[in-house]
C-alpha cells in the first residue's frame, strides 16, 4: 500500500472524527441520544474500522478486506457528519441526502463480512448477496423517500412531500414492511454464508477467522433479532431499542479489533518458526518432518512431496508418486526451490496462501532438512522401483520358462514320441509287409522328424538368436527384419561390436517393438535404426500402425525394465492413429 | 574324390562318413574340431571338406572361420558348411569370399543321401550350393515394394534355383526346360529386376542373394 495514501486516509479519518465531535458538541441539546453514545457510534466505530483496515491493507495489499474496512469506517464518519449537519440546518434536502446515504456503512459492512477473509466473492451465493445488499442501501432509501411520509422516516420537520411530487404516504406501510423484511432476509443470508464458511474452513483459516467470526456472529444475531422485533412490534419500547443499539455498537467497535486479533494470531505463528528451527536441530526420524511442519503451520492436512529430477515427478516420503492439486481449489501448493530447481512441494490448505510470507519462512527454515528427506525419498523411490522391476523380471523369466516347457512338450516331444511309435510298429512288421509299405512307413517317420527339427529350431531361435552373439547387433537386426511378417527397413546399425548386454537389450527392444507392431498396431511398415551417439546406443523403432500403445502394458513394461537394468531409458510415443515410435537410450560404457 | 569331415558330434560325423562313402566318396579324415581339420587339410589337401558351423571350443562359428581360412589357403578345396539353422548372413559371408567351391546347407539335408552327395560333388567341382531354406526365407521376406511379384511363376522358380547356386543346365534339368529357354528366362529376370547381367553361372548367385536381401 502506498504510504502517502495511507497517511492521507489516516489524516482524513482523524479530521472527520474530530469534525464529528465538534458538530456533536455544537448541536447541543437538539439531539435525542446522549453525547457519549453518539461519539462512540460515529467516531469510535469509524476510527476503529479505518485503523484496523489500514493495518490489514498494509499487511495484505492484495486482499480487499483492509480496503473495505477503511470504507466502512469512512462511510460511518461521513454518515455522522451528514446526520449532525441535518440536525443543525434542519433542511429537508439535507435530510434527504443523509437518509440516502444512511445505510451505506451497513451495506459496505455486509460486503466485508461476506468476503472475509478471502477478500473476494468466491461463490455465486456471495455475489448475489453483495448485489442485493447494495440494492438495499441507496436504491431502497430512494424508494422510501419517494413513497413514505418523511415523518415516519425520522424527519419531523419535513413537509409530507419532500420533493413536491405529490406522493403522499400512499404505500408507506407496504414499503416499510417490505424494507424491514428484506433487511431480515439479507441478514439471515449473510449469517448462512458465514456459517458455511466456518464449516468448510480448515484449522489455519479457522484460527484467524475465529475472533472475527465470533464477534461477527454476535453482531449478526443481535442485529437480526432487533430487525425482527422491529418488524413484529409496530411500536417497540424505547429501552429495548436503545439496548439493541448499544449491543450493536459495542460489537461494531470490537469487530475491527477482533480482526486485528486474528492477524495477531498469525503473527504469533511466526514464533513457531523459531520453535521449528530448534526442533529441526535435533535429528528427525524419517517422515517426521511432515508432522513438524504441519504443527508449525497449524495445518494437520499439510503434506510434503519431494521432487525426483530423473522421474520428472513428485513423490512422498515413502517414494510413492504424489499428484499436485490444481490451482483454485481448497488445496494449495508451495514449491520450494534451490537455485531455481524444484526441491520439494508443500501441499497445504489454501488458507495458508493468505500469509505466503509465513509459509516461505517455515519452508526456508526447514530447507536443509527437506533436502535431506528429498534425497532419502529419492533413494526409497528408486528402491521401490527396483523391487517392483525385480519382481516383474523374475515373473517374466518364470512365464518364459513355462512357455518353453509347454512348446517342448506339445511340439517336438509329441512328434518324437509318435516317430518312436511308428518305428516300433515298422520294426515289428519287418518281413510281414512288403518292402514298399516299409519304405512308406519309414518316409512318414522321416517327414515327422523333419517337422520336429523345424519346431526345435524355431524354439531355440525364440530363446536366443545365435546370430546376435556370434555376428553382432547389425546382422541380428537384419535377420530379424528378414523374418518379420511385415516389411521392415533397417536404416542404421552400428558397424562395431558392443558389450553383449547392450546388444541383447537393443535386439530385445527391436524384436518386442516389431512383435507389437505386427500383433497390436496393424502396421504395414516398420523402420528400425540403431546408432551410436556419444557413449550411448540409440535404438529407434517406428511403425505406421494405429498407435495408442500402453507403456504400462506387460510387454512394454518388461522392455522398460530391461532397459532400466542397463541404466538406460525407454520412451514410447504412441498417439492414437499416428503410429508408434519406441526409442531406447542404452549407455555403452565407453 | 576325397573328402574330410569336421564335426564334434561323433555319432553324426560317422553317420555322415558312411552316407558319403555309400555315395562313392572317399572319406580321407574325420576330426572333432577346426584346428585339427586345418592341420589335416594342410598336410594333404582333399577335394572338399564338410564342416559343422558350431564346434569346440566356443560352439559359435568355428566352422565358418575354418571354412574361410581353408578357402584362403587352398582355393582349390571345396568347402561345405553345415548348420543346425539357416542364416542368410552366414551364406553371404561365405559367398563374399568367392562364389566357387562353396556351400551352405542345413544339417537336416543329410537325410537325403542323393542330394547331399550331389552337393558335395558340385562343390568339389567348383560350384556353389545354397540351402533352399535360405532362399525360401529371402523369398518370403515382406517388402513394401516387391519386384519379385512382377515375375511370372516360372521366372520365380528359375530365380530360386539360381539363388541355390544351380547352373543353367541344372535348372533346365530340374524344370524340364531346354537350355535356351532357361537362358531366356534368366535374361528376362535380370532385366525386370534391374540386375547387371553376369555371364558366369557361379558368380550370379551372389548378385541374386544380395538382391533378395536388399
Q: Low-confidence segments of chain A, ≥5 residues, pLDDT <50?
A: none
Query: Class of the largest domain in chain B in CATH?
Result: Alpha Beta
Number of domains of chain B: 2
Query: Count of helices of chain A?
Result: 19
Largest protein-protein interface:
A-B, 26 and 16 residues
Query: Do you know the CATH architecture of the domain at 469-587 in chain A?
Result: 2-Layer Sandwich
Radius of gyration of chain A: 42 Å
Calculate the mean pLDDT score of chain B and round it: 89
CATH-derived topology of the largest domain in chain B: Rossmann fold
Classify the beta-strand content of chain A into a percent band: 5-15%
Number of helices of chain B: 10
Strand order in space, largest sheet of chain A: 3-2-1-5-4
The number of strands of chain A is: 10
The CATH homologous superfamily of the largest domain in chain B corresponds to Response regulator
- Record field, number of beta strands of chain B: 6
* Major sheet attributes of chain B: 6 strands, parallel
Gyration radius of chain B, to the nearest Å? Answer: 17 Å
- What is the general shape of chain A? elongated
How big a fraction of the residues of chain B is strand?
A: 5-15%
